């Protein structure tokens, strides 16, 4: 199985609260009476992870956390990563810490998962490291991205968080970009939030990806509270998708929920668009088969990819992989039972989504 | 079971058409060949209510209406309200009539339901009773709301109907509010529809709720034809939710359908946000388990509340409670059968949604 | 069964690629490794069509295509159309070719389907044939439409493709229309894309439909890449729906997916609004019952219509009809098994959607 979008994990000990804090998209303390374990994702974690650490499925959260401490974070991490049984992981290196702790370097992540690990470069993070004058910004950013992306398998944008996905069809004009770069220098803000700079950056990514033959991943749909949900509707990308089509660069719309049907339509309408469910499969817990079903209504079977979008917790690798296997298995056995497809069709579809589509798209091996 | 959002009912006799007219969100006469009984809600009414009046489930509408007349509206109302088996009802008193008939006073509703009844004050209705000069409007409205809300358990806003939920992050400035209040006085229109006044009112509610320790309920999602559906998408509230977060006032997003997944994400991302399905559980009839499932994909289990949003007809109390019990029961037994959660998990989740979350949020008993 | 919205088909031989190209909303070549047969619609075609040509269900695409060639396109077309078992087809004559081949004339389509065939006039196509000066445009367009619609059963608009559905509540003023018509003449562009002309045209259709007693069909929801999905959300029509309500003209919202719940709410709220699932039932393949279920949550049972929206391929008639029969059958037997409705209720609902609603709405026979 190829996990085409994930992050590294913390292998150090975490407090119970820090661990629970990685089981929600919120970066705030839980509301009174609430715990991130009391959620669809919490149920999924308690279903799949306790057996990996030698407890029965559905063990209470407190017992699970105690057992995890007893084993030690390093051993628990090793077991949970191995349990995901992944062949290849494409890791977004834009985040370097979780819950204030450093993430495992890619070589150690490779060792613990037993998977081939390849890098996905995060566009905005690369750009934020560029120090240049305003006039030189377009060139400097392009060079920095080309350098960072060489050897990587994809570039990823988090534009959805910074501004939203309503990208105009036209590239920003150079004078506007230089002016915006100048304003940012005067403000002294590292974080890129200006729409002109963000859109210029996205087009820079298109150019670099076209040059290097890489796909461009875009976060779409739900995420942390920094994001405004309706501005992350992938349908808002339509003008950009059309404008970028001649470049031939594949655009991979990550997650998409609750706009995954919109993402699936884009994937059907435009040859350059691909999509995944990402962390949705984990976060929706008992509902994974239903959500996968919605995605498969319009998406071409050659354009849906598997990913865990795991971040911070090794549990999220285990859970992401188990949820995908379970959810797709349930869905396809329902389809067969209802006469909607044959057993060979179901097997082929599962292989495409689990690995073959990603191998073809990212030219793996 | 705590019904955290409902209205009172008509106990007087109603014509068949008037009764049917309370089984749809439309305030227009039905289209040719259509009856509100021919709907998912109609099926739910015919499933749950005939047995309460001594008929078999799925009795035809005409037989049901005849039996209701035979028993008399008062007796039918008594039976239907009691059949809901509610412990506590939080009643929005902003509506005082249905189908041109007065609603039961709260004391009589309490008697007939056997439930503790507490009041939810409707923001815009309170403000529309305020007579004051433009300069004095901000003070007068704040005082009127504080007076009305004292002794109540929550304040509710119907901003979604008046303007939609795209509330700016900033409070309107006093001069703009005074100017808008002056314009309204000159127009002589009682109905509050000006966005500046509406947004000022919402912030007034935040202040009063913070002072009194009350949650603020907001209508979101579908409703009657007065509403424009996409403007009632709760995701549009994101900027307001962030701006109101420091107040600590819980924001309860009512109904939400068909944007209930968006509401659930807000509840996960922001500690102050809660949500319910409200009348959706009744209106979607045979589909209640599926819709509840969608809501439970992202909502923290401590932040989903039960309500009937019953209005006008005692049937809607019976149906709302029965639909919720049936739908959640179906969903959770499916989850257990599929191995997604344990029996104790399912029981605990049901208790949280049915009553415990509301008791904690509204500080009941 | 009355198919209230479809197109004619190509009876000539098609290459395999041309045939596959009619199994997707995309007008682009498929992405590497992708075939339109690898989709939910592809599964549905391979489920229902091979048996019609004497092969087992789920025969591989290559075998199916070989068998189709062996029989000859004319014979395959005859069999596939007859297998749909339709009583009446309302055919949108705005498209005259598919994959570069002419579509069957209506009389031949009637012969092959064994159905009564009636015409639906496409608004924008009629307007694009009008040659007149700018000053005369409003009169000339109204006359051309009235002439074209006489004898037809409905008018259909593809405004969703041209501009999107955010139609203002007010009719464009005559001077603005004349100015826009003049600008179009100067541009020399046949295709109508100016919003003022499009909105004027829509109101012209309302007038003509009111005069002739015809419903007005509107494309909503997904379609080919020419369309921007979120601009085709039927909720955007709310202001227009309210403004057109006094005309009494029924507005039939076609397809709607993935905004079909929004369409269903409009149908509940406004007596003039009707809706269908159209090609969604075919395109979502194994998921047809789930999507139908979503539509039936709010739509009045007297306001949902059946259509195939078949275009180009006779397969799409077979598949559309089979998918509808299968999907609705599955859904209603689930509802009965769960106690949500009685067997007579289920039979009545099926009859309404399959034929009776369309007969009433279009005054057929």
TrEMBL record, chains A, B, C:
<dbReference type="GO" id="GO:0016787">
    <property type="term" value="F:hydrolase activity"/>
</dbReference>
<feature type="domain" description="Amidohydrolase-related">
    <location>
        <begin position="192"/>
        <end position="363"/>
    </location>
</feature>
<protein>
    <submittedName>
        <fullName>Amidohydrolase</fullName>
    </submittedName>
</protein>
<dbReference type="Pfam" id="PF04909">
    <property type="entry name" value="Amidohydro_2"/>
</dbReference>
<dbReference type="InterPro" id="IPR032466">
    <property type="entry name" value="Metal_Hydrolase"/>
</dbReference>
<dbReference type="InterPro" id="IPR006680">
    <property type="entry name" value="Amidohydro-rel"/>
</dbReference>
